[in-house]
Amino acid sequence: MSEPQISFWRSPWLRPMAARDPAEPHRAATPLELLFDLCFVVAVAQVAAQLHHALSAGHVSSGLVSYLMVFFAIWWAWMGFTWFASAYDIDDVPYRLTTFVQITGILMLAAGVPRAFAEHDFTLPVIGYVVMRTGLVSQWLRAARSHPEGRATALRYAAGIVVIQCAWVGWLFVPDGWRTATFVALGILDVCVPIIAEASWQTPWHPHHIAERYSLFTLIVLGESVLAATLAVQQALDERETPLALFGVAGGGLLIVFSVWWLYFAKPAAQFLTSNRVSIPWGYGHYLVFASVAAVGAGLAVNIDYATHHAHLSHAAAGAAVTVPVAVFLLVLYVLHVRPHHVSLAHALLIPGTAVLVLAVTFTGIPVLATGLLLAALVAVSVVVSRPA
């Protein structure tokens, strides 16, 4: 257990926000961080459910745009808290209360997700996002006051977040035709804040703690995939609609979830998170990891709708709702988790090659089951190739 947890009852009210030791042994996620992640489950569940409904209704382009936009806000808010906590988590009363403010913000964002998809009204998600980021600004200002060595970096974080948050509020008044392009521009500016803030001094984040936090969030989005598919199967069974294709989707979905878990956790990440030059691309790349895995759950639900004749889209489009996010996951996994380990050429080509095959089975009669079988085969071959001689 980390020192802040041990000493909380001895000094519960206020402590100087000293930087944590990046080499601290046995650094693990705290109960407060687990509560924070638990509340993010609500937001991920909302956005995955809305993507499912949009795709099943045939609103593919608008559904995907809304999904990527809302998921960006979820992911980036989680990122901001996670990296700050890795460097400055002191677990006193002000820190806990400020974290509760950020949790309130994510719940506000989650409440606004249905309207964002149905009416393209992002008012409540933006308000929730601003609440979350305002809580983070107060944390950075507190770090600037208590930690002289990191003061300049902390102030740059606080100033950058404030400026961008004002811009996000202004985004609500941008004409509809310019909203997507403006969103992309503001998103790029938002993710540039840490790069600029840490240009001269790196915050003391903990590599093993960061790797664990990302692993936990991966489990969260995997859980949403399981939940989305389970609820869809339950609904189909409640309506006494059990076509043979439904069992293929269910079986393939299980193979996909099991294989995604196996592949993601096959290689440890902490050992190569040695600097911002490596860790920032790794951390940012997980936007695609998290978004693709959560989209797999929505895609499984879409294919169950298709099997029970409740989806208004083609067979290929239904299959692509699973195969495309799976292929994205595999390619990003290769870049983030496999290539840094300098594996053999044959092993390195397994994952990109499987991604191509997964895209190809989109046009078969059983895209979900075929994808599951391909991933299971990839896991089996990877185990054999990685086995010590």
Mean pLDDT: 88
Please tally the β strands and state the result. 0
- Note the beta-strand portion: under 5%
Multimeric state of these chains? single chain
Q: What is the rounded distance between the termini?
A: 38 Å
Residue ranges: pLDDT <50 for 5 or more in a row?
Answer: 1-9
- How large is the radius of gyration? 22 Å
Enumerate how many helices there are, as a single number: 14
Secondary-structure element pattern, one letter each = HHHHHHHHHHHHHH
Structure notes:
- By secondary structure, the protein is mostly helical.
- The chain has 14 helices and no strands.
- The protein has helices at 3-7, 31-56, 60-88, 93-111, 113-119, 123-146, 151-171, 176-197, 207-238, 244-264, 276-307, 315-338, 345-360, 367-386.
- Helix 2 packs parallel to helix 4, helix 3 (60-88) packs parallel to helix 8 (176-197) and helix 12 (315-338) packs antiparallel against helix 13 (345-360).
- The longest helix has 32 residues, at 207-238.
- It starts with a helix and ends with a helix.
